[in-house]
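Predict structure. Chain length: 549.
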Amino acid sequence: MLKYIEVVIFMKGSNLNLSFGLEQIYVNANFQLNDFDKVGVVGVNGAGKTTLFKVILKEQELDSGKIKIVNKNIGYLPQEIILENKDITVFEYIMSARPIDKLNKKLIELYNEVAITSGKEQEIIMKKISKVQAELEYYDCYNAENILLELISDMQIDFELLDMRLCDLSGGQKSKVAFAHLLYSKPEILLLDEPTNHLDVTTREFITNYLKKYKGMVLIISHDVDFLNKIVNKILYVNKVNKSLTVYDGNYDVYKKKLEDEKEFQNRLIDKQEKEIKELQEFVEKAKKASRTNHNLKKMGKDREIKLARKLEELGTRERVYRKIRLNIKPNREGSKIPLKVNNITFNYPEKDKLYNNLSFVINNRERFLIVGENGVGKSTLLKLIVGKLKPNEGSIWYGSKTDIAYYAQELELLDDNKTILENVDTKGYSDKELRTLLGNFLFYGDDVFKKIRVLSPGEKARVTLCKIMLERANLLILDEPTNHLDPETQVVIAENFKNYEGTIIMVSHNPVFTSHIDINRMLILPQGKITNYSEEKLNYYYKLNTKN
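Prediction complete.
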């Protein structure tokens, strides 16, 4: 759901304190951002990045402190896109971002009222009229239609998509449409939470260029390092260790270098402090054991004890090294030489055009097969056909006798929101103790395993799904955007595992850095249905070709 509220020319957080139960999120945290800053908001999972957005949007109250923001419209794109009123068309939804019709109706009502009033009451209504007129001017009511058409053209949203109902959109189309709605709403501050999830390369390029030129403040939570480097001029680091907020000038790469230098300096300082503390402790112990008549040593010992207390109080905290997930997917058995054949399939959703017509291909054992194309051409649908979630109108899908399939769904919908993490990964042949140990490999410790799926962040849900896939020990992985919601470090871990995986992979991904690391063999290009050997040059070429078609 997109939300718009009033907020500032600049943004300043002062002495922010927030806790959830015994867990501290911010402790006397401070930051300041200037108008037109493009800011990447980074930090480990659970540090409080999305929580900061909720505080800015006044959805989350602080325990103390405040964020000062002054009279600016905020546009918010959440990580999980929820489109309300799903029966309206895409065009109606985007157009609703500027409430021009509603404001015009309100203006007519006020003019009718002012005509039959006088005196002080009439003055009050005239002020209301001025306010509504100012809002209409802000939304550029006379030029709004041209602005909308230009935006639709720039984002390459075709007429077929404009006529679709929201409930019929794919994950990528939802993201694209939500972005169009957000940009058309004319916000002065943008809060974007993982904005590149599900987006095809073409839309991503448009968004990147748009944000570079955007005349307003942008705050972006993103695990997409390349995206951040192209846009941001500052990084707001949410530090989970000391619960602080720190602003760094420069892009993500500059921030990482500065942060590593700071950590190195801090560790050297702590080493020195610890050495001084050890020496003081030894002296104090020696003084305590000295004879009562050795007054000078006793006095020096008390002086050192006071100094020791001060040094212990000043001792810094080392940056915690957070654990990475441990993923090791191993097939239970060797797969068939030909694990899968797609034979002349044709498919379309009711009252929609065909997505494929007589599409055929054969998958080889241990192959890495990438499906690419724009949002809405049927990539996720094809994976659902392969795993049996949908049935082709014509043709068939054949599986080898030794083919065992595990499926990673783009929107993580295979998880049961009303069950716990432990219940979701419950697998025959594993005890609760073994499952809890394995969940520790995915950073779920202790009572974490009893959390319901519905309270988890998208990143946590993604880790649960990866754990389920590992437990299934399949020899054919069907992966739909497996890097969405995952931090760069975790993406590196799963890329390495998929590269070394002794089975077959069929994958949809808009993450070229990730795909380049797992040795893709061939690509299926949609909507053409053409199969070609993998290369990054071909991948970029076909993305552009699909854009023109």
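Summary: Confidence is low (pLDDT under 50) at residues 4-9, 545-549.
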